[in-house]
Prior knowledge:
about 150 residues, alpha+beta, 3-stranded antiparallel beta sheet, two-stranded antiparallel ribbon, 7 strands, about 30% helix, about 20% strand, elongated
Amino acid sequence: MTSRTHAAHTTCPGCQEEVYLDELVKGRCPLCGCTLEDIDEGVSDVEDLLDRGDFSWLIFNYFLFKQFTDLGASPYKVMQLVSLYDDAQLNEQGIQTDTRFELDLSPGRFDMLIPKKCDRCHRLFLGGGRKILSGDLSVPGFRITYRCGSCP
């Protein structure tokens, strides 16, 4: 005898008994014969999540987190940015919220070899400095800039 705890099931509206979807007879409950119009065999937990309003926010936060961490940003800083953006969206007073961001990135091997131009003082430098990801969450795209060690 196998366990059916993970099998798709529902409660029959007629007899209020638990019915497994693979036991339905022509879309009817095998116990009382009540029609289960709302239930089809394609029902899954994913469809339940799609009905939720916050599922789009979950997808947005995941891809924002993944994109920024793939670029080299600190996961902790990205999570702070996401939570600040979520808090800013809760502002219902109609005030324009600031969605600009600036994150430090870890420089890659290629960044150590090429000469870079400082975003603030416009000097060329090779080693050291900071690699910065900046942009605005309300506008598509972002910028990657560099700052030398002498600029804040």
